[in-house]
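Record 1 of the preview.
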Amino acid sequence: MKSLTEQLWFNVPERRGYLNITPTIEALVRQSGVQEGLCLVNAMHITASVYINDDEQGLLHDYDVWLEELAPHEPVAHYHHNRTGEDNADAHLKRQIMGREVVVAITQGRLDFGPWEQIFYAEFDGRRKKRVLVKIIGE
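->
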């Protein structure tokens, strides 16, 4: 069995942002040499997500608007969590909606996606360095 573990680091300068990380993950799959297996991509911070969807700018905008409607950043006093001195309770809720990680099959040395699928890193409380774990295992 082969395996590869890599850490990716992101520092999104805005509070929220969406980065297509598919090319980076594809390069890691090639580097791993795994032909048949699984690729885990996991946001290692509780105010960020990794998810799969279409890389279409209108959809990314719609996600941002929808998430802000579901869990608005302001008023920050609306959230009990923010009474601890934080102002990111909304980011925790957004992460819960968008998820923590994705697992993608590797078939014949490539990520086995459906049509239009891409892997994204979503940031909901940016302006600081955060980590994503990539774990690839297989034969």
